[in-house]
Write a structure and sequence with these properties.
By secondary structure, the protein is α/β, with parallel strands linked by helices. The chain has 17 helices and 17 strands. The strands form 3 sheets. It has an 8-stranded mixed β-barrel with strand order 8-9-11-12-13-14-15-16, surrounded by 4 helices. Strands 2-3-1-6-7 form a 5-stranded mixed beta sheet, with helices on both faces. Strands 4-5 form a two-stranded antiparallel sheet. The termini are far apart. The structure holds ligand C2E and magnesium ion (2 copies).
C-alpha cells in the first residue's frame, strides 16, 4: 500500500522516485550503459471530464488509462501515477532519441481508441514532457522539473503531443512561477479589488442589483482584468481562496451600503467550478452571511451551465443554497449545454443571457430568435431573465419588447469601484432612468 496507488494499482510517486534514484545510480556506476528517460504524462482537459461527468466517471477513466499505459510497457520500464491525472514513465537504458521517440509515439497511440464509460464512447488525449539523463539533468529533482516544464510546453503548443526538454524553456515556466507568487501575495497585500456593475429593472430603470467583478491592482502592471489571472488561479488552486475573498468582500460591501442608507439590492458573485464542487459550499456561504449579517436574499451566486452537469452534486447543492434564501443565476446562458429537463429540477432564480447573443440582436435574426426563445422559455419555467452586455438603446428596446426582466451593460454603466458607487448612487440611478 505504501508503494501503490489505491485507485489504479500503479506504483505511486514514492515508489517511482525510489526506482529512478536507483536506476540513475546504477547508470552512473556503469551497470546500465544507455541514457535514462523520464516522461511526464498529463491528460488533456481531464478537469472537464470531472466537472461535467462527475468524479466517479473521472475515476473510471483514470483506471482505464492506467490499464492501457501498463499494458504497453516493455521489460524494465515503469509507469506510476503521481496523483490526479498525472503519470510518469521511467525508461532505463535507452539507446538514443530515436528509441525514445518510438516509445512515446506508441504511448500517444494508446489514446486513439476511445474509452468506454458506462456505455459512452469518450475520447481523451495526453501531453507528454520528456527529460533525459544525463543531457537534461543529473539528479531526479532536476529531471522531474524539466520533464514537467516540457509537458507544459506541449500543452501550450496545442496538447496531444510530446516535447523533449531544452534549456531555453526555462524562462517561460519561470515567468509563470513569478506570476503565481505575485498572485499569492496579491491576496495577502490587498491588491485584489472588486468592481461593481449595476443590474437594472427593465420596466422601472431601478437598480435591483450589482455584479461583483474582480480586478487585480498590480503595482507595475496596473489594473489586470480577470481573464489574465483567473485561469492561473484555477490551475494553481488559488481560486478557492480568491473566491472566498470575493464572497466575503462582496457581502461585507453590500451590508455596508445598506447601513449607509443605499436602497437594499442584491450583490452577484461569480463562482468558479472548483468552488462550486466543494463539499461544504452551503456551509461556507451560510457562515459568511451570518458573520457579515447580510440577509441571504441580497446575495446572488452565479454559476455556469458546465458546472451543473454533475447532476448528483448540483441538485442538492442548489437546493441547500436556495433553502438558505440565496438567489442563484446561470451565467453566460446559451453558450454551454443545459438539459432542460434538469434545469426544471434545479433551484434557480434567473438566467443571464450571454453577451454574445445580445451583441447582434438587432442585426442577426438568429440571435434575436435565440434571445426571444430563451426569455419565453424561462418565463414558462418561472425563471427571471437578465441580459448581459447591453451597449445600445436598440438592444434595450428589443429586450423590452421581449419582456426581459433586467439588463446589465455599458449602456447604463461600466463596472465601478465601491467608493464610486456609494458616492454617486443617486446620480447613477437618475442617469440610468434618463437613458430610457
Ligand atoms: P461574466 O460573469 O460574464 O461578467 C461579465 C463581463 O462582461 C465582465 O467582464 C463585464 O465587465 C463585462 N461587461 C459588462 N457589460 C458589458 C458590455 O456592455 N459590453 C461588453 N463588451 N462587456 C461588458 P470582466 O469583469 O472582465 O469579467 C470577465 C469574467 O471573469 C466574468 O464573466 C467572470 O466569468 C470572471 N470573473 C469576474 N470576477 C470574478 C470573480 O470574482 N470570481 C470568479 N471566479 N470569476 C470572476
Ligand atoms: Mg458573471
Ligand atoms: Mg456572463
Amino acid at each position: 500500500m505504501a508503494n501503490h496507488d489505491d485507485l489504479t494499482k500503479l506504483p505511486n510517486r514514492r515508489y517511482y522516485k525510489k526506482q529512478v534514484t536507483a536506476i540513475l545510480e546504477q547508470t552512473r556506476q556503469g551497470i546500465h550503459r544507455g541514457k535514462v528517460a523520464i516522461m511526464y504524462l498529463d491528460l488533456d482537459r481531464f478537469k472537464l471530464v470531472n466537472d461535467t461527468l462527475g468524479h466517479s466517471n473521472g475515476d473510471l477513466l483514470l483506471k482505464q488509462v492506467a490499464d492501457r499505459l501498463k499494458g504497453c510497457l516493455e521489460s524494465d520500464e515503469i509507469v506510476a501515477r503521481m496523483g490526479g491525472d498525472e503519470f510518469m514513465f521511467l525508461l532505463p537504458d535507452v539507446s538514443d532519441e530515436q528509441h525514445i521517440k518510438q516509445r512515446v509515439e506508441k504511448i500517444l497511440d494508446l489514446f486513439r481508441t476511445p474509452f468506454n464509460m458506462n456505455g459512452y464512447e469518450f475520447h481523451i488525449t495526453a501531453s507528454i514532457g520528456i527529460a533525459i539523463y544525463p543531457n537534461d539533468g543529473w539528479d531526479i529533482e532536476t529531471l522531474m522539473v524539466h520533464a514537467d516544464t516540457a509537458m507544459y510546453r506541449a500543452k501550450h503548443l496545442g496538447k496531444n503531443q510530446y516535447i523533449v526538454y531544452s534549456s531555453n524553456m526555462r524562462t517561460k515556466s519561470h515567468e509563470k512561477i513569478v506570476m503565481e507568487t505575485s498572485l499569492r501575495k496579491a491576496l495577502e497585500n490587498g491588491e485584489l479589488k472588486l468592481f461593481y456593475q449595476p443590474q437594472v429593472d427593465i420596466k422601472t430603470g431601478e437598480i435591483k442589483g450589482v455584479e461583483a467583478l474582480i480586478r487585480w491592482q498590480h503595482p507595475v502592471m496596473g489594473l489586470v482584468p480577470p481573464h489574465r489571472f483567473i485561469p492561473l488561479a484555477e490551475e494553481t488552486g488559488l481560486i478557492i481562496q480568491l473566491d472566498q475573498w470575493v464572497l466575503r468582500t462582496a457581502c461585507q460591501q453590500n451590508k455596508q451600503w445598506q447601513e449607509r442608507g443605499l436602497p437594499p439590492m442584491r450583490v452577484g458573485v461569480n463562482l468558479s467550478s472548483q468552488q462550486f464542487s466543494r463539499e461544504h459550499l452551503v456551509d461556507t456561504v451560510k457562515e459568511v452571511l451570518e458573520e457579515v449579517g447580510l440577509h441571504p436574499r441580497y446575495l446572488e451566486l452565479e454559476i455556469t451551465e458546465t458546472m451543473t452537469m454533475d447532476v448528483e452534486h448540483t441538485i442538492p447543492t442548489l437546493k441547500g443554497l436556495h433553502d438558505l434564501g440565496v438567489q442563484i443565476s446561470i451565467d453566460d446562458f446559451g453558450t454551454g449545454y443545459s438539459s432542460l429537463n434538469y434545469l426544471k429540477k434545479f433551484s434557480i432564480d434567473r438566467l443571464k443571457i450571454d453577451q454574445s447573443f445580445v451583441r447582434d440582436i438587432t442585426t442577426d435574426s438568429n440571435d434575436s430568435d435565440i434571445v426571444g426563445t430563451i426569455i419565453a422559455m424561462a418565463h414558462n419555467m418561472g425563471l427571471e431573465v437578465i441580459a448581459e452586455g447591453v451597449e445600445q438603446k436598440d438592444q434595450l428596446r428589443f429586450l423590452q419588447i421581449q419582456k426581459c426582466n433586467e439588463v446589465q451593460g455599458y449602456y447604463f454603466s461600466e463596472p465601478m469601484t465601491a467608493e464610486e458607487m456609494e458616492a454617486n448612487f443617486e446620480q447613477l440611478q437618475r442617469h440610468i432612468k434618463d437613458k430610457y
